[in-house]
Design a protein that fits this description.
The protein is an alpha/beta fold. The protein has ten helices and twelve strands. The protein has one domain: Ribokinase (UDP-N-acetylmuramoyl-L-alanine:D-glutamate ligase). The longest helix has 15 residues.
């Protein structure tokens, strides 16, 4: 669950600011991506864990309301539901602290017990808010089932990603900060050329395609065919929370419908751009009809 405070700017260390708005909205990177993909018309199932508390009940109900199959979202006794404490500046930029709660209880054994859920999947979306060993197990299960794997490496780990994980990833989708960290570069805003340099380094670790998300600059795409920048539509951003999750969801939806990767990135750029014009995480995810209208 995202607990979101809006203020003129993000506070610095030791500072107390007066905010003007508070929201409690369903979030979590995995759930955001599942919810957004279902809203865009895909057939989606999620694996995960929530606590045996009101927040967990609300999260499962909200995810189910999008049409997502939540039978694989397990209720964990004696554990709180995961939360994110989010500060959003009036500029739309944010900073986030995550407390894993039940997310930290999702295990490789849970993945093994749900192995048949991977059958028939075209794409499996993974991120790093669950234990790394579990993510590795899910990537292996996806590959065995013939699915393609899209990994959002967030939150970015302090050390390199395991080679076994990268060997099972088809598309790696860090934002610019995460890409810099993974490539051993000082985290900062990247221009497109810097993003290409980082993406080529990351591609050399195993994933055939790397997409570096650059916010309002769009994305830098690197594949065996070369590199290109795919610009984002210009919008008035009010909250960038979960924009990357909406991008990943839309990317998977477009690819599952047969789009080639550059076109899928453009589709995903539009979905993410539309999402930042609204507040919240899942609450900002557009429907397919809304996205089609925005594209027109």
């Amino acid at each position: 669950m995202d607990l979101v405070a809006f203020a003129p700017r993000i506070p610095v260390a030791g500072e107390t600011l007066i905010g003007h708005t508070f929201l409690s909205v369903p979030g979590g990177k995995g759930a955001n991506q599942a919810y957004a993909a279902a809203r865009l018309g895909a057939r989606v199932a999620m694996l995960g864990r929530v606590g045996a508390d009101d927040l967990g009940r609300q999260l499962r109900e909200n995810l189910a309301s999008s049409g997502c199959d939540v039978n694989g979202v397990l209720v964990t006794k004696d554990c709180t539901t995961g939360i994110a404490l989010i500060f959003v500046a009036d500029s739309g930029q944010n900073s986030i602290v995550i407390v894993a709660g039940a997310n930290g209880k999702l295990s490789p054994e849970d993945v093994a017990e749900a192995a048949n859920r991977f059958d028939g999947a075209a794409y499996v979306l993974l991120q790093l808010e669950s234990p790394l060993a579990t993510v590795v197990a899910a990537a292996r299960a996806a590959r065995r089932a013939g699915a393609r794997v899209i990994l959002d490496p967030a939150p970015a780990p302090s050390s390199a990603l395991p080679a076994e994980l990268l060997a099972n990833v088809d598309i790696l989708t860090p934002n610019e900060t995460e890409a810099a960290i993974l490539a051993g570069v000082s985290p900062r805003r990247l221009n497109p050329q810097e993003a290409f340099d980082v993406a080529w380094r990351l591609r050399a670790t195993g994933p055939p395609a790397v997409i570096v998300k650059l916010g309002e600059q769009g994305v830098a795409l690197v594949t065996a065919d070369g590199s290109q920048v795919l610009p984002a539509p210009k919008v008035n951003a009010v909250d960038t929370t979960a924009a990357g999750d909406v991008f990943n969801a839309a990317l998977a939806v477009a690819l599952s419908e047969g789009a080639e990767i550059a076109s899928a990135c453009q589709f995903a750029n539009r979905a993410a751009a539309l999402s930042v014009t609204r507040r919240g995480a899942q609450s900002a995810a557009p429907s397919r009809a809304e996205l089609d209208a925005f594209a027109r």
